Amino acid sequence: MLSVNEIIRSAEASAQELFKLIDEDISVYNQKKVLDAFRECKVSYHHFNPTTGYAYDDAGREKLAEVFAKVFGAEKAIVSPNIVSGTHALTVALFGLLKAGDTLVGATGAPYDTLQEVIGGENNGSLRDYGINYKEFALKNDKIDIESVSEYLREHKPAVVMITRSRGYSWRDALSVEEIGEAVNAFRKAYAGVTVLVDNCYGEFVEKIEPTEAGADVIAGSLIKNPGGGLAPTGGYIAGKEAAVTRIGYRLTAPSIGTEVGSYYQSYMPFFEGLFFAPSVVASSLKGAILAANALGSLGYEVKPATGEMPRDIICSVKFNAREPMISFIQGIQYASPVESYATPEPWAMPGYDDEVIMAAGTFVQGASIELSSDAPVREPYIAYLQGGLTYQHCKIALAECLKRILKG
Predict the structure, then answer these.
(1) How far is CA 259 from the centre of its chain?
(2) pTM higher than 0.90
(3) CB of 37 within 8 A of CB of 71?
(4) What is the full DSSP assignment across 256-319?
(5) How far apart (Å, rounded) are the C-alpha atoms in residues 361 and 358?
(6) Closest by Cα among 353, 378, 374, 373 to 363
(7) How do residues 256-304 score in pLDDT, each as one tens digit?
(8) Which residues, including other chains, have CB under 8 Å from residue 319's CB and lie 6 or more apart?
(9) What is the pLDDT of residues 213-227, one digit of tens each?
(10) Measured between alpha carbons, how far is 167 from 112 in angstroms, rounded to an integer?
């Protein structure tokens, strides 16, 4: 049997073409795009200053939103430390775009666990409680069933279609921006009045363009994932068409004030600096996902993305088909973390999830999944989701620890 070091060396050698594409093409392109946005928007030191109270004319808040809009090819953006997660960003967007009697269409099957209660929960303030209908379409061969969704749009004219770019806790590859753009164009031909919302979590800067540049009306995500670059301490963003984002802003605060207020009594610098670092950090995460897929694939585990494939988000999914090796793998990630490496994660009843979840997240920002982390619902077929990595070197070291554990078992 090969040693752990030999397995990793072989996995790394087979990844060189993809690594070169990431380092010399994708990340350079995205870094220039971000730099150009900073220059065009004239970011200055005074934009880092904290504010208090209502924060009318908060230069930092307004400039940060302007830069995000420019980077994502959007007309307007909301970037707020008061958005607590990706689920929160999507919830605000949905409540801003939908009203009683409207229908939301899920075009990528069941949404992520925490969003299911937002859509269909009972007596918890869900969309369903407010008289908003929901129609879901399963993926067809892991792709959007464009024909079926389009037929529904032509006949029923729903208000919003939601596309989830990443895999959530599903066994599938993430969607490419090209696939999303193809679906958006088809949906708009079927019903020109539909608004397309994309859950962009885990996908920012993985490709050269974002869904807003491929026709989506609105994208939303978390700042403690890709676009925060590992430096943003909290927050979320929403970006897209001006009319849609303006409506969403009324739900974030109040219809009378929208995005005109909102203070942050700390420096805005980590948000700006995190965005600037994001293309490089995402490149490290992508390379870590490829290395893990190659190494674990060589040991006979089923992985997504498959060995030799370019990831479409920063996640590597590993199907262990047994409880213990999955738990050992995730515990290895915690042990190889810079924060609370001494802790041993165990499955627990995490709020918002139907099954017990085990999560390794020894991160500087609590729960930040742009930092190296791993989690899994404890249910068959026991799939672990590995994501993030501020540096490729950390991904490599942590993978070695995980391989030692599962090979020993």
Answers:
(1) 23
(2) yes
(3) yes
(4) TTGGG----SS-SHHHHHHHHHHHHHHHHHHHHHHHHHHHHHHTT-EEESPTTPPPSSSEEEEE
(5) 10
(6) 373
(7) 999 999 999 999 999 999 999 999 999 999 999 999 999 999 999 999 9
(8) 171, 301, 302, 303, 381, 382, 383
(9) 999 999 999 999 999
(10) 8
